[in-house]
From TrEMBL:
Listed InterPro entries: Put_HupE_UreJ
Membrane-traversing stretches: 316-344, 351-370
Superkingdom, natural source: Bacteria
Alphabetic keyword roster: Membrane, Signal, Transmembrane, Transmembrane helix
Name of the protein described by the UniProt record: HupE/UreJ family protein
Signal peptide start and end residues: 1-19
Pfam families (UniProt xref): HupE_UreJ_2
Length: 372
């Protein structure tokens, strides 16, 4: 009887110990990144007990608290397990500097200050950080990567590294407010160039730009001056509309779910196609362009908001992104203008315009169905 009681007590103690172990989370590492003029400073905090598991031996002598691991050995270890990579695949240089052993706190930590420097020509503002210190041996280990862009700014989480995810893309590390503007200009160009729905709306709305209206129908060529005035009004109005909501969306002032925005963009193409077939808002194309531009700008703003910019960096980013959009728009209109001129003067003008309007309308209906 006594032996059974002892067995039950032992099982109970074991169960309590296992529950306590599960209830106490494993210490995690922390990597605080801070952008400098030509490098990124990383403050790496590692829990000492977990680090000892990675090395496979005690790192501190108890109870004297004598450190058994040389700083140079720790520096070599960190240099092997911190691997920043530029967007083109080139490795950054990693230099481990000062090391601090925080042995009088519980749990004890070791903190290393590391300088990360990009290769020549690589951007400081965007790189991939590969980090598997401790985690290469302790697979359940977690590391939290945060980013601070100024001494007085609050760090923001760049990513959490855990099993199966040992790298994180870091953006916004360069503390200079204009940093990354060229990349955002290119991003704006890519966003509009790859956004078939945005371009299709604009081109469909411009289909009858060279035409006059007679008896409620498109009729007759209005001349190059009429075409130039129509293009200028429509493109400017569209730019004003999407620029406004781009700014509001990027700052988070206006947040609209993605699906209704995408449906509304497809609907804007359908309305433009109907107008290209037969004038339904004659002389008010600029107002239509501005109104639907507000909707298109919400989609632009959502993609920019994900970058979490603020202050002067946000202002520069919005401007650069918008200029990228405008650059592609100007190029598209420059190519489309002579084609619209030739179409308006052609004897096949009516058929060509209606076929294009029908194709755009069919595409819009398909997009609406898919997005709904």
């Amino acid at each position: 009887m006594l032996s059974r009681v002892l067995q039950l007590a032992a099982i109970l103690c074991l169960a309590l110990a296992m529950a306590a172990a599960r209830g106490h989370p494993s210490p995690q590492s922390a990597v605080l990144l801070e952008g400098r003029a030509d490098s990124v400073r990383a403050e790496v905090t590692l829990p000492l007990d977990e680090l000892a598991l990675a090395f496979g031996r005690p790192l501190v002598e108890v109870p004297s608290n004598r450190v058994l691991l040389a700083d140079a050995e720790l520096a070599a270890y960190l240099a092997a397990h911190i691997r920043p990579v530029a967007p083109d695949g080139r490795a950054w240089t990693v230099k481990v500097g000062k090391v601090r052993w925080l042995l009088h706190q519980r749990p004890a930590d070791v903190v290393a200050f590391v300088t990360l420097r990009p290769p020549a020509g690589a951007p400081l503002d965007r790189f991939t950080l590969n980090f598997d210190a401790i985690a290469h041996h302790v697979q359940s280990h977690i590391a939290v990567v945060t980013l601070r862009t100024g001494e007085d700014s609050m760090p923001r989480i760049a990513g959490t590294l855990r099993f199966g995810q040992r790298s994180v893309t870091v953006q916004g590390a360069d503390p200079r407010w204009w940093a990354g503007s060229l990349d955002l200009f290119r991003l704006g160009m890519a966003h509009i160039a790859e956004g078939a729905d945005h371009l299709l709306f604009l081109l469909t709305l411009l289909l009858p730009a060279a035409l006059l209206v007679k008896n409620g129908r498109w009729h007759g060529y209005g001349g190059p001056r009429h075409l130039a005035a129509s293009l200028l009004k429509v493109v400017t109005a569209f730019t004003v509309g999407h620029s406004l909501t781009l700014l509001l969306g990027a700052t988070g002032t206006v947040r609209v779910p993605e699906q209704p925005v995408e449906v509304a963009i497809a609907a804007s193409i359908l309305v433009s196609a109907a107008h290209a077939w037969r004038p339904i808002f004659r002389g008010r194309e600029a107002w239509i362009a501005a109104g639907f531009g507000l909707v298109h700008g919400l989609a632009f703003g959502a993609s920019l908001r994900e970058l979490e910019l603020s202050g002067l960096r946000l202002a520069a980013g919005v401007l650069a992104f918008n200029l990228g959009i405008e650059a592609v728009q100007v190029a598209i209109v420059a190519v489309a203008a002579p084609l619209l001129l030739l179409l308006a003067r052609s004897r096949f003008s009516v058929y060509g315009r209606r076929i294009a309007a029908l194709a755009a309308g069919a595409m819009a209906v398909m997009w609406i169905a898919l997005r709904v």
